[in-house]
Amino acid sequence: MTTIAQEAEVLRLLFDHGFVTTADIIARADELIVSESELDDNLMELSTIAPDKTTAIYAKLMEMAQTADKPAALATALGRMYDPASKMGPGELTKFAAGLGGIPAECGFDLPANLQFLKNLSGDGTGLLAHLQHLKG
Questions:
Q1: Which residues are CB-contacts of 105 (< 8 A; sequence separation ≥ 6)?
Q2: Percent over 90 (pLDDT), the chain
Q3: Would you give the distance in Å from CA 82 to the centre of its chain?
Q4: In angstroms, how far is CA 119 from the centroid of its own chain?
């Protein structure tokens, strides 16, 4: 089962790359509140932030994600990106691949074996979808 910290980091990454909106984040918080056996104060707080308060939502995700397993969260987020990325045209995929290319320098951890492909993304995103599909499982 994914921890709340892990899910917060996944949502932050998805938001950073344009795959979810603040409304999606709040909806996910609401889903987790309903499914959790114990109420989590951070989820409750996140759930009550107005969708137009982007900075507050992002700050709450950062706070909640402090104990997340960052490499595992990155792998999960990349796997969730597969379906929408598979529908991108060549130009969009190239732009998306370029955005992912900065992750190795920005992530603050050594990339595990399953994420090493991020260091070698081609300019046009060739091979990216196969890696994302593999992470999707």
A1: none
A2: 62
A3: 12
A4: 18
